[in-house]
Design brief:
By secondary structure, the protein is mostly beta strands. It folds into three domains: about 25-40 and about 405-615, no CATH class; about 45-395, Neuraminidase (6 Propeller); about 620-729, no CATH class. About 10% of the residues lie in helices and about 30% in strands. The strands form twelve sheets. A six-stranded antiparallel sheet has the order 29-30-33-34-35-36, with helices on one face. Strand 22 (about 345-350) and strand 23 (about 355-365) form a beta hairpin. The longest helix is centred in the last third of the chain and has 13 residues, at about 715-725. About 45% of the residues are buried.
Length: about 725
């Protein structure tokens, strides 16, 4: 009997293993797709990053500087080494400049280094040690006569220490006034739970200014008499400015001596800030120009707005840079150049100190480099470190692009459809379905993906992990077409309104939208900024029998707000979503089995589909409501509310996160309580006192998701209401 039951199960699955057919496959063999998508519809950026010093690579490099006494470069590795190399040495031989048992964030040379051999090192905590630790800035001294140069580890003099944690800041540099400036973060990985951002009673979330050349007795620095808070009761006199979240890289303006800071944001905004004595940069009452914890106590000085802020649609982890002074790029002289760790972009801004206004701001390049730091060579070269690959890149003027086919402005020109009018995919374009769709304002969706030539997909080694994304080779395209019923509930009135594609080129994903014409014959590329279009819908439940529905065609950058690195870029193509039977037009088969059979997986999953996680349909009342609710939040919320996802909360809404560890039950909201007395993110048994539920149930300010939707998901709201009501109090 047990053997018979096992046979029946295997027949239902379609195979005993992926390579062993017991039923027809959904697709008998792979057809190679001929892509017509290349390049970009937008003007190329004026510069590019190209590999420099190809003979050397490093492990998680975080800082680079040219040695003051020779042509050597020094590079700090995050886990505790500073190495040097000679650019002219083709062998790439690296020499140890310093090794610590602590992690290193940055280093700087004393202005009189050639005389005293002093180097300042910003080190963060030792991750091998559990429990509270301190970040610190230390001074080391050169081992005289060493060649290649080497610092004496035993010469370490700890200048100052403060509580370490998640956001440690990361730099210590002597300014042109001769004082050592040190940037620190709020020391947490959350939303400033210590409420230290606006406080002056500790050394967190501040910039210090210390006199290290004339120390007081008993310590290794003194306080400059003109520090702004010297006479403020209970304030730490070391503080020069405050209200930073995680200042990652700062440098001094060559004309005013003011520090330019790249301050990493949390919820939605990344900031470039210009620091002055006593300036308050807002964290965590504000994030840039926007409320964050608006009801928290404020510091004693008014807020100083950022010079520039970037939304997370285009920038996720800002890296401060330098005001360019070299001769290599004369057109960039006096331009402050900075970039982004996550998206690899770089920008330049011009700032008029007399009017305190930005007079020019533009994107310089868009790369795949995970920029952890910048460096400037004495010859005017401008370098960027890639934290992921360990390589050094150099900014250069982009040469004219070679002639090539234009980017398709019509959907019919992409090669994705053999007939756009019939919405018939081209050979090699694969139609697919998912278990739990993302809410898209009641539209109906059709999904496809395409792999050019022999391109394939890498499935994560642990495909049962809900958020382990599939990795696609270059040239891959995902396709989603949205249709809207022009008369509510009448499928015959349905019209396609948008086809959205996400393209991977040069290891970089970019999203594009095409708007369908009224005749339903073709679709035209939407410009980079995106647009809104309002449709008139016949609806007997609406006043007058008619309602207007606004559909948002996202900008290029908005697409990547959800299709982020943290989410794996491609949202629907994951094992738990794809582990389902799909109708291939007369033949039904599990998609994982079919894809493995046609060879699009580099390494097929070893087990049958039943061995892997499959999301339940969130609206199938026969399935467990807890699993259905967790699936809904995974699909609609977890692209942000996971580690490094950028969501403004400590909560983790991934499907596999155990509910007690999701940090939502009886947790007070960290941002808005929506005026709810005794509000929690999720209040078991009480949906109306649950901020998560209420935000999903509204549109406008404070809505969730914050983008891509103008209409409430009534079924989703009902699901969460029922789920919260049944949670044990």
């Amino acid at each position: 009997m047990k053997k018979l039951r096992a046979v029946l199960v295997l027949v239902a699955l379609g195979s005993t293993q992926f390579g062993e057919a017991a039923a027809p496959y959904g697709i008998s063999q792979r057809v190679k797709w001929a892509s017509k998508i290349s390049g970009s519809p937008d003007p190329a950026s004026p510069y590019r990053l190209t590999r420099a010093f190809r003979q050397v690579t490093f492990k998680q490099p975080v800082f680079i500087a040219q040695y003051p006494a020779s042509e050597r470069f020094m590079v700090a590795e995050y886990k505790g080494k500073i190495l040097s190399f000679e650019p002219s040495d083709p062998t790439g031989k690296k020499a140890l400049f310093l090794e610590m048992k602590r992690g290193i964030s940055a280093f700087s040379f004393h202005p009189k280094y050639k005389e005293n051999g002093y180097v300042f090192v910003f080190s963060h905590l030792d991750r091998k040690i559990k429990g509270p630790q301190n970040s610190r800035v230390s001074r080391f001294q050169l081992e005289m006569g060493s060649n290649p140069p080497r610092l004496r580890p035993e010469s370490e003099t700890v200048i100052v220490e403060w509580l370490g944690g998640g956001h440690n800041g990361g730099e210590a540099i002597i300014g042109r006034d001769g004082y050592l400036y040190i940037s620190t973060g709020d020391s947490t990985s959350g939303s400033d739970p210590k409420a230290t951002g606006q406080g002056l009673d500790d050394l967190l979330a501040v910039m210090m200014r210390l006199d290290v050349d004339r120390p007081d007795p008993g310590r290794n620095y003194s306080i400059p008499a003109d520090n702004p808070f010297v006479k403020v009761p209970a304030a730490r006199p070391e503080i020069f400015a405050y209200g930073f979240r995680n200042p990652w890289r700062f440098s001094f303006d060559p004309y005013t001596g003011q520090p330019w800071v790249g301050d990493v944001g949390q919820d939605i905004w990344e900031m470039i800030e210009l620091v002055s004595p006593g300036s308050n940069h807002g964290w965590s009452v504000r994030e840039g120009n926007h409320p964050f914890h608006p009801n928290n106590p404020k510091g004693p000085t008014p807020f100083t707005p950022p010079v520039v802020e970037h939304h997370h649609t285009e920038c996720r982890s800002i890296t401060g840079g330098y005001v360019y002074q070299g001769a290599k790029f004369p057109e960039l002289k006096d331009v402050y150049i900075y970039g982004d760790y996550e998206y690899g972009k770089m920008w330049g801004l011009r700032y008029d100190h007399s009017t305190k206004k930005v007079t020019g701001h533009r994107e310089l390049t868009d790369s795949a480099v995970k920029i952890s730091s910048f460096g400037v060579g004495r010859d005017g070269s401008f370098y960027a470190l890639d934290h992921a690959t360990g390589e050094i890149f150099e900014l250069e003027t982009r040469p004219p692009a070679p002639p090539g086919p234009p980017f398709p402005r019509k959907l019919s020109e992409t090669g994705l459809f053999s007939s756009v009018r019939e919405h018939k995919p081209a050979p090699g374009v694969i139609h697919y379905s998912i278990n739990a769709p993302f809410w898209s304002d009641g539209t109906h969706k059709e999904r496809f993906f395409a792999l050019p030539g022999d391109a394939r997909i890498t499935v994560p080694e642990k495909p049962n992990q809900a958020h382990n994304a599939w990795v696609f080779d270059d040239g891959a395209v995902t396709v989603k077409s949205f249709s809207l019923d022009m008369e509510a509930g009448n499928a015959a009135s349905r019209k396609r309104i948008e086809t959205r594609i996400v393209v991977k080129q040069e290891n970089h994903w970019v999203g594009y939208s095409y708007i369908w014409d009224d005749a339903q014959t073709d679709a035209t590329l939407v410009e980079a900024a995106g647009i809104d279009k309002t449709f008139t819908i016949k609806d007997s439940s609406a006043p007058g029998g008619v309602r207007n529905q606004t559909w948002h065609y996202p900008s290029r950058s908005e697409c990547m707000f959800c299709h982020s690195r943290a989410a794996g870029f491609v949202l629907g193509l994951t094992t738990p979503q794809m582990n389902r039977v799909h109708d291939y037009g007369g033949t039904s088969d599990n998609q994982l089995r079919t894809f493995s059979h046609i060879g699009i997986f580099k390494k097929p999953p070893a087990k049958a589909p039943a061995s892997y996680l499959a999301y339940p349909d969130p609206f199938d009342s026969k399935a467990d409501i807890n699993l259905r609710a967790r699936t809904y939040m995974q699909v609609n919320c977890a692209m942000c509310h996971v580690a490094d996802g950028g969501g403004n909360s400590l909560m983790e809404l991934g499907y596999k996160t155990a509910l007690p560890k999701a940090r939502i039950l009886n947790e007070p909201p960290v941002h808005e309580d929506l005026g709810i007395a005794g509000a929690s993110l999720v209040k078991p048994g009480e949906p109306d006192r649950s901020v998560l539920y209420r935000r999903i149930a509204l549109r406008g300010e404070h809505q969730m998701p914050p983008v891509s939707t103008n209409t409430v998901d009534k079924d989703g709201v009902k699901l969460l209401n029922e789920w919260i009501r049944q949670l044990p109090r």
